[in-house]
Amino acid sequence: MRLKNVLILLMSIVILVGLSGCGGNASSENTGAGKASPTAPSNGGEDLAKFKGETINVLSWEGYQEDEWVKPFEQKYGVTVKVTYAGSVDEMFAKAASGSVKYDLIFMDGGSVNRYHKMNLIQPIDLTKLTNTKQLIENMKSLNDKHVVKDGETYAVPFAWGSLPMMVNTDKIKEPIDSWNALWDSKYNGKIVTLDDAANQTAMTALLLGFEDPYNLTDEQLDQVKKKLLEQKPLVRTYYSGFEDGKNLMASDEGWIGFSMGPTMITDLQKEGKNIVEVIPKEGALVWIDNAVIGKDAKDPELVHVYIDYLISSEVQAQLIKKTSYGGVNADSASMLTAEEKKVSHMDDPNYFNNLVYVAFPESFEKRVKLWNEIKAAQ
Amino acid sequence: MINQEQAVVELRQVSKRFGNYEAIKNLNLSIGKGEFFSIVGPSGCGKTTTLKMIAGFDHATEGSVYLSGTSANHIPPYKRNVNTVFQNYALFPHMTVYDNVAYPLKIRKVPKNEIRPRVIESLKMVSMDRFLDRSPNQLSGGQKQRVALARALISKPEILLLDEPLSALDFHLRQEMQRVLKHLQREVDITFVYITHDQGEALSLSDRIAVMENGVLHQVGSPEEIYETPRTKFVAGFIGKTNLIKGKMEGPSNFVSDAGFQAMTNDASGLLGEPHVYISVRPEKLRASKEDDRYVNRLSAVFVEETYYGSDKELTFREAGGTHILMKQQQDDGNMRFSAGESVDLFFRPEDAIIVKEWGS
Amino acid sequence: MYGKNLMLIIISIWVLLFIVLPVSAMLLFSFWSVENFQVIHSFNIQNYAKFFHDPIYLSLFGKTIKLALIVAVLSALISYPLALFVNHRGGTYKTILFLGVLAPLWVGYLVRIYSWRSILGESGFINSLLVLTGILKQPSSSLLFNSFAVVITMLCISIPFTFIPIYSAIEKIPGNLAQAAADLGANGSRAFWTVTFPLSLPGVVTGFMFAFITSFGDYMTPSLVGGTSGIMYGNIIQTQFGNSYNWPLGAALSMIMLLFILALIAATRKIGNVQAIFEE
After folding, report:
1. Chain B closest CA to C188's CA: distance in Å?
2. Could you tell me if the ipTM is greater than 0.90?
3. Are C183 and B55 an interchain contact pair (Cβ–Cβ within 8 Å)?
4. Where is this region: Disordered (chain A) (predicted)?
């Protein structure tokens, strides 16, 4: 019967491992020994003690709440920043909407603000309480405001941004690429990878088809997009389902050319020694701008305002760029960057935004998800 | 003795080793047609291994097993005309009683219309024909045993092997099944090879008995021979109770114990040269008084205790050499009472004194 | 007596918290609908109607059943001889062999899928081997990103789960039953098909169901190694809970899957009950 005992033990371990695997995602508290950092905000005669002992619950993307800038803030005000990370837009939305935890501060792409607003999950931001908004990059901010200002109230403040460019392996593809049409080119049959994401796939295809607003398509336009994507399907190696998945495909040469999830993906691959470059096609590329948003039931909105103001300061923004190579939102932070850092984050090129199309709230997620499922289900 | 032509099972110089362990040592055995043959011995004596070699589940390391005169060393179990009744019945739990008993016929592709009457006939033999559609799980131990018997006998094997078939049954059921077995064996006229550790069972059922110990065959003979004239110390002690005193032979029928006790014995001239032998006297052959002139042997002993068994009682003494001596006292022997430490003379006849060797052949 | 009651209470709480409540919530959701990202709490069956009216759901349901069946059949076909071997020939290495078969379970779920991707990929192990030995002139792209890769990867996950019940069913069969069959005239294969196999059938059915259910609900494997057509029923459910925020539809699709699996379990329960056969 010894074997039977081993069996039972094994099964229980398997089940436990399985369970923890299912729930497995980062929900980590930002405590632990922080590396001391120079930048602590100083707002003149502010009463530093008035927030003492409070906690800010943050729902964030990885990389947005690093010790380098969170620790000094916590020390200065005697507060705790408790961070929950989400792995995908879907997961973030599910977490915020489930209501099991009331988040004080949520990060999301500007396009999603509309939905959170409609679901009454967020509250307006009092711009008078923020001092750093005037340093925000001008054309980026005005692009963003079109999507986050509702009935004269601003619901979100930009924090970081990134484009969704094309990525091309120049070892494998020698000819210059300048159009999304390359992803429909039978020359690259079986070497094309693209993102398993209903809204952005549809939008990128709409860009190529020349539709004016890729996030507001008529049913007829959606039909054309579907036809175009069906045309592409046999040429595609696979639709990748996330950042790591996509990187893995390009790194192992399963894909030579693809629709990327952002410049970070490309710089990561370059660090692995791959000759993969970013291409902004002539039809334009999509750009997401992630915003800080205050939760409907925030315990102390005033503290959250102070934290947001701190996060968009030029010091924190420079640290963000250095650490993650996302685009920063504070124009003044450029002075604290090296030439190389400016180039990678496109802070050196004020025109970069002109060819980008905002990742907005689509006319209907449901229609796009259905369209995309139909493409994947097509034989 | 049974001659070669009649031998249904014959083991010639068979040895069986499992790694370094020698389970069977140079075994010679011949079982005749229609015999009820028992192999007895304590667990680990090699009786089950012997049975497995006859069934074909195990193979001799050396020597040969002959079935009806032909070497069976390379014949797989399913081709042998030998069936087994297993210790735990081994009924197929996913089949009904009927299907269990019909199994050997179906396997042997017996025509369908013959199967049913034969199954019923076979089950009638063991009085189980009312349980056709029962599942084995719904039967008692004795009922399972009967079904197992019917299943093993239905294809009329030449040899039926029974591996401690009654060991899992309670006392009364065992008695009843012993009668069933004895009766059946006469009726079907099949050679039964019966494995048991219960010497009483072997004595009451068998035509002949083989006694084994540690892979060695000690003696083969009829129950009377085995009981009355055991050849080794082990046989004398294992089959029935006996008193054994160590010593040696000083004449063909003159025994002297190590402690100096002398006795007249039956003829043991063959054992004169042995460095030491044992005198064996059954408890029921001892008397506390000289009953008649034939009781020439006198053993001085000290009374220790008495044990009451209902129909009789057993008195324990200690002789000069320190060996405990048992004496069976029948109820009608009168009421002799001894007190502890009392010296008593015990008497026995020369013909009841059997000389046995230390080891088997 | 007291300990037994306590155990019962704990189990009841567990079942209530982790099975009854979530499933009831899902059932409730499945009759609601969503408008403008607001859940409308009024009873209707439109979500269930969608399943039957929109061909995408039924066809994916069918495709998923087919794939799960293939995986379950292969899983049983591979696990059975493996279990026989470990049980009969394992000897003193039984425990080690047993752990060996279960080894894939020690690797994380995603890691396992990615491993298969690197084994089957164009620069992967199998292709390198085939090119090195000259069997292929250049690496083949047809090992990965198709149903074949999905089946292989799912097998890797399901074989241990199929192996365990089959092994324990075979182990439970008293050794003397096969001997009895041989003794009564059945050769090796007859003895196997008339005794060993029917007695192990409950384990086979249980193992088959394990493989079928794990494959049926798996949506990560198809999306990571299935290529452009790697969508299965589980993926459709998953997409309802994300951006499209159609929890009611997702709940209804899940309920259909749950009912289907429960029906299957009920149908196979009779043969899946090992206990009944060996009960004394």
Report:
1. 9
2. no
3. yes
4. 27-47
